[in-house]
């Protein structure tokens, strides 16, 4: 009986969380990474590019369970600049070099057509941490994401501290 109540409580919590995420603001779409890089340089924050597909159930889970709740949290916003690239979209995008491209072409160029993929870039467009590819386990994903964010932040801060 106790197990059944816990399961019911857990399911209710998941429904509330998913409902809140469904009504949450959409994640910021990548439109101009060159402009985003200027913002990131000024704030000394890495750019976290989330490569997703609108048709990927794993992407929806990553967004609902991790990215939306994190994006609404002040500490996360101060640590990274999040942008979303949809791998199947022909939406225009200005890349880090200022060249006009599309979401799908940028994803192919960055070898991020497997979704979900999260990559971390410095303001110069260079990768700061190993990419997170796929979604295998809810048990470990948050820890892996936090570790990648910490690594990207630390590497960027070290690099900018060395510059005159």
Q: Strand fraction band?
A: 15-25%
- Largest pleated sheet: 4 strands, mixed
The residue-averaged pLDDT reads 86
Fraction of residues in helix: 40-55%
Measured distance between first and last alpha carbons: 65 Å
Return residue spans where pLDDT drops below 50 for at least 5 consecutive residues: 5-16
- Helical stretch count? 6
The ordered string of helix (H) and strand (E) elements is HHEHHEEEHEEH
- The rounded Rg comes to 17 Å
CATH class: Alpha Beta
> What's the CATH architecture name?
3-Layer(aba) Sandwich
- Report the structural category: alpha+beta
Shape: globular
How many discrete structural domains?
A: 1
- Say what the CATH topology is: Glutaredoxin
Q: What's the number of extended β-strand segments? A: 6
Descriptive notes:
This protein has 164 residues and is of the alpha+beta class. The chain has a single domain, classed as 3-Layer(aba) Sandwich (Glutaredoxin). It contains six helices and six strands, in the order ααβααβββαββα. The strands form two sheets. It has a four-stranded mixed beta sheet with strand order 2-1-5-6, sandwiched between helices. A hairpin with a 5-residue loop joins β3 and β4. Residues 5-16 have low confidence and may be disordered.
């Amino acid at each position: 009986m106790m197990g059944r109540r816990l399961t019911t409580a857990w399911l209710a919590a998941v429904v509330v969380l998913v409902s809140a995420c469904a009504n949450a603001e959409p994640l910021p779409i990548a439109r101009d990474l060159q402009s985003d890089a200027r913002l990131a340089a000024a704030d000394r924050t890495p750019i976290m590019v989330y490569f997703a597909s609108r048709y990927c159930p794993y992407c929806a889970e990553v967004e609902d369970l991790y990215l939306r709740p994190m994006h609404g949290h002040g500490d996360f916003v101060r640590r990274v600049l999040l942008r979303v690239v949809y791998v199947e979209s022909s939406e225009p995008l200005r890349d880090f070099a200022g060249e006009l491209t599309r979401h799908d072409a940028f994803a192919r160029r960055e070898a991020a057509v497997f979704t979900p993929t999260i990559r971390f870039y410095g303001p110069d467009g260079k990768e700061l941490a190993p990419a997170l590819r796929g979604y295998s386990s809810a048990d470990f994903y948050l820890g892996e994401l936090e570790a990648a964010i910490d690594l990207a932040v630390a590497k960027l801060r070290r690099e900018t501290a060395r510059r005159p």
